[in-house]
Amino acid sequence: xxxxxxxxxxxxxxxxxxxxxxxxxxxxxxxxxxxxxxxxxxxxxxxxxxxxxxxxxxxxxxxxxxxxxxxxxxxxxxxxxxxxxxxxxxxxxxxxxxxxxxxxxxxxxxxxxxxxxxxxxxxxxxxxxxxxxxxxxxxxxxxxxxxxxxxxxxxxxxxxx
Length: 161
Ligand code: NI
Fold this sequence. Notes:
Elements: H1 26-41, E1 46-48, E2 58-61, E3 69-80, E4 83-87, E5 95-101, E6 104-110, E7 116-122, H2 123-135, E8 150-151, H3 152-160
Antiparallel strand pairs: 1-2, 2-3, 3-6, 4-5, 5-8, 6-7
This protein binds nickel (II) ion (NI).
C-alpha cells in the first residue's frame, strides 16, 4: 500500500487540463493502485489523478466501499434528471457545498486493461462521476457551490439534530 500526497486547493495541478492515457504501463497501474489506497485512507468516494499531482485522465471511484471503478479517458455521454445536495472534495478539506448535478449519468471509459466499458450511475455515483471528471479539466466543485462553501462539521451537526 502506497499513499500519495493529496494536492490542496491552490495547487496548480488542480487547475490543469489533463492528458489522455495512450497505453497502460506498469507505472500507471501502480498509480491506480496508489489512488485507491489514497482515496480509501482519506475516506473519499472518488479521486482524480491531478489530485495526486499526475496530469492524466484517470479517475477512481467507489461510492459504497465495495464497487471500485477505474475510469481512464472517461467521457460523459448521457445525463438526465437533477439532484441538489451536499458535496465535498479531498482537495478542499473540511469544507462542503451545495451543488446541483444530474441524477443519472452514463459514462464511457477504459478499464485498467484499456478495454472500453460503460458505467451508469444514479444519485451519489452520478454525482461522483461528474465531480471527478471535472477534475480532469481543472475544475473544482467550489465554482458551482450554491451560496459558497460551508464548514463540513457544521453541516453534519445540523443534520444530526
Ligand atoms: Ni474532488
